[in-house]
Every structure is written in C-alpha cells, then in structure tokens.
Amino acid sequence: MGKVDQDQHGLREGKARGLKTIYLTVLTVAFALSFVAYAAFTLQSEKRQAEMVLLEEARMFAHEMDAVWKFMDNSQSVINNSTKGGYEFKGLHCAVVGKSVGKLFSFGTDYVIRYTNFNPRNEQDVPDEFEAEALEEFNAQPGEREFYGFAPFDGEDRFRYVQALEVDESCLECHGSPQGEIDITGYAKEGWEIGDVGGAISIVIPADQHERAFWENIMRDLLFFILITTVIGTIVYGATMVFVLRPLKGLHGAFGQMRQGRLNASLENRKAAKEVTNLIDSFNDMAGELRDMYGHLETQVQERTFDLQEANSLLERQRDKLEVLNGELAQETRFKSDLLSMVNHELRTPLTAILTFAQAARKSCGSEREDDQRAWDHIEKNSQILLGMINDMLDIARSDAGTVQVACEAIDLGEVVAVVRETMAPLADKYLVTFRATVASNVPLVLGDYDKTTRILENLVNNAIKFTPDDGAVSLSVTFDAAATAVKLVVADTGIGIAPADQDRIFDRFVQVDSTSTRKYNGSGLGLALVREYAEQQGFTVSVESALGEGSSFIVVIPESKLVRGNDE
Question: Using N-to-C axis directions, what is the helix angle for 19-74 and 208-240, rounded to 10°?
Fold first, then answer.
C-alpha cells in the first residue's frame, strides 16, 4: 500500500470513533438519563408516600378527637343530672372537653390540635389563612370533608390537616334555632341546621422527622440504583469486550497484515458472538481466495504477457500491411494526378482547337452550303458539351483531393449576373429559350468566391435551359429578403419539372433524372453536384421547388452572416 493510501487510512481512523468509545459514551448517557428519570420518580414517589403517611396520621388524630366529642355528647345526661335526679348543668359540654383533650394531647410536642370556625365564640378559635381556605372550600362544596397539604405554621413548613365538622341533632341545643337565643352556656345561638358546617378540627403535624426519613429513603434508593446499574454495566461491558470488541480488534490487526502483503493472516472464531463469528469466517474465506489468486497470478501474468506479445506482433504485421497500402494509395493518387493532368492538357487543348476550327469553318461556309454549316454547328455543339463535362470532372476531382481554394471577398452580385447573362444568352437563343436576368436595387454586397458563385449560376441556368422545351422561358432573379435578412438567387424555368421523389437526389454526383429526348443535350450529371459543393464551401444553401410539368425553381440562399451590411447603401 502506498504512502498516500496509508495517510488517508490514518486520517479516516483519526476521524472515526472507536467502538469502545461509542459503547462507553452510550452507556454513560443511558446511565445519566436513567439516573435522572429514576431520581425524579423516586422523589415524587417518596414525597407522595410521606404525604400519605402524614395524612393517615392526621386522620387517626381526627378520628380519635371525633370519638371523644361523641363520647362527651352521649354522656351529657349523666354529667348534668344530680344524684337526686334533677338537671344541673356542670359546664362540661363536648366543645370544652374536645378542646381540652386536644391541648392535653399536644402538650409538650410540636403537634397542634384545635377547633376553628368563622365567627367563633372564643377568639383563640379564629382560623388562620390555611384554615380559612379550608372552611371556604367546605362551605362552597358541601360534600368536601378534608383539606390538607404542606403549609407554614409558626414560621415552619408543616403538614396541615383540616376536617369539616357537620352539624347533627345534638348540636342544635346550643347552636340551633332560634338564632340569637342564649343557650345554656351563655352564648347566643347561631341558628345552624342539620348538615351545616359547624366548624372544623385543625391538626398540625411536624414534618422534620418525616423529612429526614424522606431524604434517607431517597439517598438509599439512589445509591442502590447506582450500585445495581454499575454492576449491570460492568457485566455488559465485560461481555461485549470478550465477545465483540476483542475479536474485532483481532480482525483489525489481520486486515493490517493483509495491507502489508502478508496474505497468510487468519483468525480463530472462539469466544465471539455469532455475528462476529460470521464476519471472521468471511475474512478467512476472503484471505484464502486472495492466497489462491496470488498463487495463480504469476501464471496469469505470463499468459497475459504472451498474449500481449502476440498482439504486438499482429500490430506490427498490420502496420507493414498499412505501409504497403499507403504506398499503393500514394501510387494511385499519383496516377490520378497524372490522369487529371493528362485530361487537362491532352483533352482540353485538342477540344479548344476543334472548337476554334469548327467556328472558323462554319463562318467560311456561307449560307449557300447549309448542310456543311449544320455539320460544323453539330461539331461545335458536341465539343462544347464535351468541354463542359471535362471541366466538371476536373472540378469534382479537385474537390475530392482537397485542393480547392475558396476565397472570401466582397462580391457585387450585379456583376456576377451580368457575366452569367452574357455567357448564357447565346446558348438560350440557340435553343429557342427566352432568358431574363434581374437584380433588385436593395441587394447588398456579399462575402464569397466570385468565380465559384459565377459557376453556380452558370450551371443552374445551363441546367434550366437544358430541360426547357423550345419557346420556354428561364429567369434569374436576385432579391433581398428583409424578413429573413438574406439574399436569394432564384433560377426558374418552365421546363419539364422534377418529381418529389427525385428532388432529394438530383444534387448527387452522376445522377440524371431525365435521359429522354426532351433534354436539349446530354451531360455528366455533375453540374448540380458542383452547385451544392460550391454553395456549401461558401456557407450558402441550395434547395429546389418543382412539380412535374410545371417547371422548377432552384434557390440559393446567402445568409445574414455573409452580407456586407455596411455597403448596403
């Protein structure tokens, strides 16, 4: 393994956290969350339990005081009757006894037991804030009997319990109707009725001892929780170390040996979890396959080397064949060049001479020798055809050889059209075809090759005359299309037309759609092919619009990029 790979591996190990670190972090977080949740639960539970203990204690006190109250109420007839059988009120009624017993019970302790009510007969029974809230609750909700909770008393938080006292029949003698009447105790009656709230018994229980027990219980429970979770975490961590982390560490070391090229590394899967055992088995299988592959590597390299040598030998032979073919191709190219030179010199020169002598002979014959004049006309005509075919073939050959040079200069299409008119007018007169050429006044100068543009129009006009019957018409028009910002050169004729199926192939080489007697003379089928090639070389486009029997229109479009806009005026 290279140094760069080792550095990258080290960076990955530095950024990634170890499984042990992750495991300890997860255990710590889980322990912390569990501890907080358990502490909150324990605190709430112990608080509720302590409150219930105090509540039961207060209820017991209230129940005992209620029993004393009922005992005194039931004993009034005995207490207030003399030995002679007469009634003699002793002043020992239930309220006095209840209050006295409460004071005696709480004497020398932090407990307080007393009776209270709104507008009491004694000032010492005036309710404090907590007792007043309880009495209001009892009066507002007749079915409510208890009111309790932790509240301040003499500057300390204590457990307060208030129980409602309902008016029964025994209470009416001193507190019933008529209201304001003086009872046997010397106080005015309140006018109570059975079921009314006649006050409440208030019990104050100190919470110090319960609070200490409360915190002792919480600390004991939390310490036990910490102990048990620590034991469980240690056991789980130890098991994980033995069955997961330690085998994985050995697997990591084995991979390190393989990175160093020691393919004989292997691992034992004892004391490992099932998943880790499967991973170790997969590693051992992979190591075995690598050893087998390495054992066959030299043989494979030798085979590949031999195949490469064979391929190189084949390439050498093919290169030799290509050199031979290149030589033959160069020879054929030279032969083609020689042939073109021979055609250019050996054919064009005699044809030029034949044309010259034919024209001279035709002029010297005079009108009285019509047969001779027609013969010389026929010779001149066919010589012109042959010369045109030779020129087309030479142009095609130069195009294939890549020797055609295309100029890019400003062209006045009016001059081009004038040259084409001068060249094609005699040919049109000879074949009884009307030829007309026009150039619009707003046509700008264009960028192109003067000679090749002239040749394009000459071939199109020549082709139109060729396929136009006697008394037909051929027109050449040059216009500026403002909407398309382009110049259009249109050669239209009233000839035989072209079928739609043939319009796509008439620009191919050596294609002659019509070979009937309707044509004025035969050709090589290269004229339109040269038109398209010359047009494309200059950035022009050529298209045709035609229908059988209705003539044809060949359209050359010179785009905006080829217009010399500064010279329009």
Answer: 150
CB 104 within 8 A of CB 96: no
Enumerate residues 6+ apart whose C-beta is below 8 A from 391. Answer: none
Name the pTM for this structure.
Answer: 0.39
Which of helix, strand or coil describes residue 162?
A: strand
Cβ proximity of 487 and 557 under 8 Å: yes
Contact 48, 217 (CB under 8 A): no
Number of alpha carbons in the 13 Å side-chain half-sphere of residue 102: 25
Token pair listed for 485: 């910002």
Looking at the DSSP assignment, which residues form a beta bridge with residue 166? Answer: 197
The residue type of 441 is: S
Quick: pLDDT tens for 265-303: 666 666 666 666 777 777 677 776 676 677 677 677 778
pLDDT, tens digit, for every residue of 78-121?
677 766 666 666 666 667 777 777 777 777 788 888 888 888 87
**Could you tell me which of 474, 478, 479 has the C-alpha nearest to residue 463?**
474
Show the tokens assigned to 551.
Answer: 């003539």
Which span out of 60-69, 171-180, 451-460, 507-516 was modeled with the highest average pLDDT? Answer: 451-460
8 Å CB contact between 199 and 131: no
